[in-house]
Amino acid sequence: MQLTSHDRSSVNPSMPLMRGVTGEMEHRVLDHDNARRLWAAVLERAILDLQDRTTRADAITWIRSHRHGVGSFHWICQQLDMDPDSVRHALLGPLTATGATGFKPVDMAPGSLSTH
Description:
Blueprint: H1 5-10, H2 14-51, H3 56-64, H4 73-79, H5 84-92, H6 95-98
Helix pairs in contact: 2-3, 2-4
């Protein structure tokens, strides 16, 4: 349904918003927790990918990236209240500084990332 100019002038846009504010805020808190779990799972997947020869190069490229957009390594670390440079160094160690192609496995078990 499309509103005419007459309909728009008679609508109070804040009324529907006010009725749903409490429910909306509760929904956003739950969404935030679920989003943190999702992004932690993405980071854990990258850790697992580092352990696999077939996915290692892609994981290293993603972790080394300095992009800041949604879904980037940097952005996900920020969503999880983690310092991207510290996490990058913990995962790749000297690889981040040297650009070497070798890899030393990380001692980090899946499910060990805290989302709190």
